[in-house]
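Schema walk-through. Below, the input block comes first and the output block second. Nothing else is stored per chain. Lengths vary across the set, and this one has 180 residues.
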Amino acid sequence: MSPRSLQSYEKPDDTIELDHNSDFVILDSPSVDNFVDNLLNRRPQDNQNNPVTSTETSSDQLTESTLESEMGIDVISSAYAALVAAGGVIGYVKAGSIPSLAAGLFFGSTLGVGAYMTSKDPSNYYLTLGTSTLLTGLMGYRFYNTGKFMPAGLIAALSVAMVLNISFRAVSGPAQHVKK
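--- output ---
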């Protein structure tokens, strides 16, 4: 086993060590530390040219980066995703239906990803809208054929409500549906 060979390059506040026995680079830098801290804490970096700080912001002075960092969770879409997934699980438990379990978990997880994407960017509602529209058609067709409200009618009604909700969001503008 050979001893580690390190080369060190120093700047006034930064140290970079290259380890030739592995693929690691060791960085010891206040600027890197501040960047990582700001990234992990999701705070906008302090900038002397920007008079707006994270403690004193008005709605007119919000920049895109501070708006992103203050976004919360899309509760309505998340609840809808959970209900769809729970419906699949309940269908499996009550009737032993593996297709219900698979469809519920598939559509629920797809809607969960869509809710996450909408939480990060309110204008990115296309996955949730597409999945809700597909569920409206599929479950509406099942409800029409069977006449049974549970589960097809309930999911169809919830899906129609979601499509209308997302359409309203698209027309009215971003960030009115996300809770901090």
